[in-house]
Amino acid sequence: MPATPARILIVDDEPDLRTLYELTLLREGHKVEAAGTVSEAMSLLKGHGFDLIITDMRLPDGLGLDILQHVTQTQRREKAVVITAYGSAESAVESLKAGAFDYLTKPVDLKQFRAVVSTALAAQAPPAVAAQERSTAPAPLAAERDPGSMTHPAGEAALHRLVGNSALMQNVRARIVKAARSMAPVLVRGESGTGKELVAKGVHACSHRSEGPFVAVNCGAIPEALLEAEFFGARKGSFTGATQDRPGFFQAAQGGTLFLDEIGELPLSMQAKLLRALQERKVRALGTTQEEAVDVRIVSATHRDLAAAVQQGTFRQDLYYRLNVIEILLPALRDRLEDLPALCDALLDKLATESGYPIPHLTPRQLRTLASLPLEGNVRELENLLQRAIALGDESKLQLDTSLADDPEVLAIDIPLTPSTTPEFPIVPPAPVRTSQVPASDTTLPADLSKWLDEQERQVLVKALEETNFNRTAAAAKLGLNLRQIRYRMARLNINAPGHDDDA
């Protein structure tokens, strides 16, 4: 029996099921109230604060999503679990996207029911705080609480490992914190070398599962013949070489997070088996007929365009929708060059510590040289370049590869040269412009440099957009930018393209 009983609202129009859920929760020591319709549930919510709402999807006077949307719109603190019909992947995904903490499928397995309830309650505020909140009704608004306080030290440390204070990286960190609040599957997309596993570790560390295991799997590195055994486990004698029982990735990640890297590399046959495991939350090891329940949070990652793979028939559409409930996009390094000094400092600190050398520093010239490179391998390529520079250098001096020839245009690149010392989630300064854009005849110093630079950048962007009839793709090409960069600058400078939503 829990030390502090939780207050739970059950919403289901079937009296027998409602009674079954009530009795199950009462035996666990919780306080339970029940409703058979959306309107009854709304009435109970007006007068009480609950820790958890468990609602059927289809009700006589509406949907469970109506209750969920009410909780979200009024910023109440209750977590919600939605019960969906068997095989209704669309309903499950829809509920998670609407903010449900988790879902259950009919017929509900009571053991799984208790596990989901326990997990949802564990993700609530500490018991002392929860007890105090339950003593007043209705439940306090989420806006009255500090969202930052929900991130514990392990989560803070994981977020700090995502180096960079650009607006793009601030958005990534904020997205991680939001995604960590529920059990919804997360899909991390980004080019190779951008740090997708760091994002997955951040989601795990910021969640209530942070004390559980984090199991990382490279789906593209496992031979197809061994995939089922590696994922779901195998019993002794189930195949040649299986000399003892061995757990799979799902069993190893029990109570924690399973990170499926390069998910797009899974063959179709394994995709079907993975989908069933996600839907049923049960796996069957090779060599046995018994299924075992698993409690894992799924975070997957890919550098591929899975939507295109679905169209090509190489990736299952139902699995794609199940995995892509919350998407986190990681920017390429070339799209956040303002983070380059801080990244270089962090990588040099790490590499020098590992090698036992004094921590070296890049000169402004060397930093500009690095900024001029394509860096298609992103942070991983940058780390390799710096590791080579340390190996070729002398004492605390770095020697960049001589193939990275200095070029007059390279040395004209203007990026911030001071390591970032600002706190997490700061306001990002305006993107700098090249010194060649400053009129030579204008010797008057601006009273506000940031505003002046913003205005110069705005004028250049508007001119390019007008010349291309507000075709952002064409305007970006004229300015040597990509589409993502010009979108970011337009949003930051509040430049709208009236009547032109297409990039064609």
TrEMBL record:
Keywords of the record: ATP-binding, Nucleotide-binding, Phosphoprotein, Transcription, Transcription regulation
Domain Response regulatory: 7-121
Region (Disordered): 129-149
Modified residues (4-aspartylphosphate): 56
Biological process annotations from GO: phosphorelay signal transduction system; regulation of DNA-templated transcription
Single annotated GO MF: sequence-specific DNA binding
Sigma-54 factor interaction domain mapped to chain residues: 162-391
PANTHER family per the UniProt record, alphabetical: RESPONSE REGULATOR PROTEIN PILR, TRANSCRIPTIONAL REGULATORY PROTEIN
Protein name: Sigma-54-dependent Fis family transcriptional regulator
